[in-house]
Amino acid sequence: MEDAVAAPQSAVHRIEFRGGAVEYFKIWAVNVALTVLTLGVFSAWAKVRTKRYFYANTFLDGANFEYHARPLSILVARIFVIAVVIGGGYLADIYLPFSPLYTLLLLLFVPWALVRGLSFNARNSSYRNVRFAFRRGYGMPYLLYVSMSFFIGVFLLPWLIRGYHSFKIGRHRIGVQSFVFNKAPISPYIFALWVLPFVFFLIVLALSITYINFPSGFNGDYLQPLFMAVSLPLVLFIFFYGQAILFSMFWRNIKTENGAVIKCNFSEKQFAAVLLVNFIATSLSFGLLYPWAKVRKTRFLANRMQIIAPPNALDEIFARRGEDEGALGEEFDAAEGFDFDAGLV
Amino acid sequence: MPDSSDSRTALTEGVWWFDANSSRRQRASLHFADGSIRAENETGGRRDARLTEVEISSRIGVTPRKIMFADGVCIAADDNDFIDAMILKHGGGRKSFALHRLESKTATVIMIVIGVGLFLSVLLFRGIPAAAEFGAERVPREHIEKIGGEVYMQLQQRKFIHASKLSPADTTRAQDIFARVVAALAQEEEDFRLHLHNFSINAFALPGGRVVVSDALVELLNDDELAAVFAHEIGHIRYRHGVRNVLLSSAGGLLAVLSGDISGISLGTILLNLGYSRDYEREADCFAYGYLRRNDIPVSLIGEALEKMENSAFSEEPETSAHPETDEDKDGILRRMLIVLSSHPETAERKDLDAVCDVS
Questions:
Q1: Stated pTM of the model
Q2: B315 touches chain A (CB under 8 A)
Q3: How confident is the model over A106-117, as a mean pLDDT?
Q4: A125 touches A68 (CB < 8 A)
Q5: Distance, in angstroms, between A31 CA and closest chain B CA?
Q6: Pick the residue with more confidence: A251 or B291?
Q7: For residue A330, which residues of chain B lie inside 8 Å, CB to CB?
Q8: Are residues A50 and B261, on separate chains, in Cβ contact within 8 Å?
Q9: Nearest to B262 among A23, A57, A287 (CB)
Q10: pLDDT confidence bin for B140, thresholds 50/70/90
Q11: How many CA atoms lie within 13 A of A280 on its CB side?
Q12: Which of A92, A223, A291, B290 is the most buried (most CB within 10 A)?
């Protein structure tokens, strides 16, 4: 796999995550408590606080990132989503003829909201006092959503996802510096989105058949949970491996116009193992280990990712004035699961 | 700890100055006096402002504090305690670090975690079912009948149930028993109707008064056992279990959405859905129990009918599955209703109704 190539005489800039599990646990606990007490209203403030914690503790070349979103905007967006998506879904459940109308409504709304969400997050993120931005365009999201709604999406999935990565990266910029998606080969996408799910399905099938035909009785009572304990992580690992590949393809292929690139010094399998352990720990602890897991993942990535940029590139990012917009759709960026929120932009 | 008696007025270490238009940074110093703030950078640049004119970011962990001047110049300072002290001294609310105070005391946080855990448990196990029950009682009858009618139509269209193949004699027998049970229960609210269809050995109730019973069940059970099953199904309708379940499914999801970051809650709602079904079954059983006792029919018949159904179900081919929850399809609502509202031949404890139900 060819990574994006950096300009000659470039300097390596390390990424450092200075947050800690215990510190974040306390922030997270207070977030959860206040969210529950306010029946969810505080969730917008909690989200901003969490993002601020992870951004502000991520240092590139000694300077940190910042997240500036106003929680109120996020709250309004969330209320709107609840009203439209969940209210509509509930109506569609009760009154079945409303169902196709609801599908149409989602079809129109979700891709639009996704784009607005990307735009909102970008312009509320900054590095060294220069804001990011996202140039809005709706073609790719609609294409993706429509194809996935009809079965055709499955056949086109590797190309759709690669196209989505290209769309997402190519429209982001920091100040006047645009990002570019390096020409990535399609084979990792095919592997992650076709081959792995197929293997996943086969293994699940094989395991289910084995599980059903287990001998019952004394031996069976011990064997069945043991079997589950061994086979579940295997199956989950395949799932996370696919996620890790997609993550890797996204970040490795980011370039800036002036030749900066991102270097990822980890293998996808390593990252998948981190995700797997995180998932198991979080599940077994009823969610209490979630803060620890999140910090662990962020630290893993920060330690192994570097920016390689031409000399002084980080000092010479110039700002540009952008227009102001509303926050609607911010939620959908979090909901679309192709990219990880690693505290990095 | 922020302390307004801190005698320092200037910060010269760990302060960075960022211009408004580029990412270039330089070292700087901060000075506070009489409600105003001054920033000076190493190349001679300077900004003065009242504390009320600058935006100070709220404190989060030990991350650098950012102070934004009106023209876009940003100062980053590492010493949060100093900034907090200056805010207290020179005017500026505690708001800037209030949350941080809450987040930094470990004992408080532990109490919060325990408190939230308890609160959530109560909410999930008591609050939501109560809310669903409250809501279900208040849904207008017309809506319920409409839902029931829709579902019934869907069941037939999607071939969950097929046209009845029962003999005229058995059909009449079933209808007579049903009429008797309805009359005895004197339920004036809903319009109860018996629909006979060909599907697996089972019976279920739809909101609005339709009781759907399979041919095989009628052939399997005797008159009294059939009456017991009918009474059970009518109980489901009377308590609006189907409607409650619809409300519950949405409520559980709603809570998960509202609480945002809470992981593990989906696991809880799944577990709870099983519990709700058992509670419904018990309610319907006790309702039938009341009927049987009042009509001098042995109460054990509920259990015996269930046992018969269970024994027959296991000897059936897998296609006509009595356990619809094993397949997943888009009509989740239908599946849920079938599971909740059918006479589920599951636990042995259902036979021991004397202990469980109120004798009234």
A1: 0.71
A2: no
A3: 83
A4: yes
A5: 8
A6: A251
A7: none
A8: yes
A9: A287
A10: confident
A11: 15
A12: A291
* Sequence letter at residue A99: S
The phi and psi torsions of A62 (rounded to 5 degrees) equal 85, -5
Model confidence pLDDT, tens digit, residues B217-261: 888 888 888 888 888 888 888 888 877 776 666 555 444 444 443
Instruction: Using an 8 Å CB-CB cutoff, list chain A residues near B76.
Output: 63-64
Which one of B20, B250, B259 has the shortest CB-CB distance to A36? Answer: B259
For an interface test with A, the pick among B96, B261, B265 (most A C-beta atoms closer than 10 Å) comes out as B261
What type of residue sits at position A338? F
H helices within B160-264, ranges in order? 168-185, 215-220, 223-238, 241-258
Calculate the average pLDDT of chain B: 74
CB-based contacts of A301-304 (< 8 A; 24+ apart in sequence): A301/A17, A301/A266, A301/A271, A301/A342, A301/A343, A301/A344, A302/A15, A302/A16, A302/A17, A302/A58, A302/A342, A302/A343, A302/A344, A303/A15, A303/A17, A304/A264, A304/A265, A304/A266
How many contacts does A have with B, using Cβ atoms within 8 A?
145
CB neighbours (10 Å) of residue A159? 14
Q: Distance, in angstroms, between B92 CA and closest chain A CA?
A: 19
Q: Distance (Å) from the C-alpha of residue A264 to the closest C-alpha of chain B? A: 24
- What is the reported pLDDT for A279? 93
Q: Give pLDDT tens digits for A242-288.
A: 999 999 999 999 999 888 899 999 999 999 999 999 999 998 888 88
| Residues 6+ away with beta carbon under 8 Å from B85 | B2, B3, B4, B6, B8
Residue recorded with tokens 């800036």: A256
Looking at CA atoms only, how far is residue B74 from chain A in angstroms? 7
Token pair listed for A27 = 């922030």
Distance from CA of B316 to the nearest CA of A (A): 18
Question: Helix, strand or coil for residue A209?
Answer: helix
Question: What is the token pair recorded at A64?
Answer: 């940190």
Distance CA B297, CA B184 (A): 13
What is the distance between the alpha carbons of residues B57 and B83, in angstroms, rounded to a whole number? Answer: 10
Contact call for B267 and A25, based on CB within 8 A:
no
Query: Does the distance separating the beta carbons of A30 and B99 come in below 8 Å?
Result: yes
**Cβ distance of A129 and B18 shorter than 8 Å:** yes
| Segments in chain A forming alpha helices (H) | 21-37, 43-56, 71-81, 87-94, 99-123, 139-149, 152-170, 187-190, 196-212, 218-252, 268-284, 290-304, 330-335
* Cα A58 to Cα B215: distance, rounded to the nearest angstrom: 67
Contacts B74 to A, Cβ<8 Å: 129
Give the C-alpha separation, B352 to B299, whole Å: 9
